[in-house]
Amino acid sequence: MSLTIGQPAPNFCLPNQDEKSISLGDLAGNWLVLYFYPKDDTPGCTIEACEFSEALKDLEHANAKVLGISADDPQSHRDFMVKYKLSIDLLSDTDMQMIKAYGVWGEKVRDGVAKMGIMRQTFLIDPDGKIAYHWPSVTPQGHAREVEAKLKELRD
Q: What is the largest CA-CA distance in the chain?
């Protein structure tokens, strides 16, 4: 399934690192950065999470919330957050319903080997709950500032 700009974002209700449920409806009226990543405490995922944590104050100033999503459980998220002093919320999608609803589960090729996995993608959702922008392929280094720039562009 491919989501398109202007389409309503698929609803979700998932536990964060503290096992508190967060839903799309809870965030209505805010911009939302949803970034999907393969696994806690791996090189690219760590870069991305640290950069979003560093950019969080600027993103919040632009009325945006940031949520990272992977199939890791809440305990893994807590450990990851403590290890790297992360300040963003991480949602746990262990049954991968949200991962599949957003179309980020698919075939990945690494070192010539194809396997199924979570593809690193980011969605920017507007205050009305619609997809405002989609990054179908993400390079972790510099991505948070790229998202911040796009948010400012869309808000102006």
A: 43
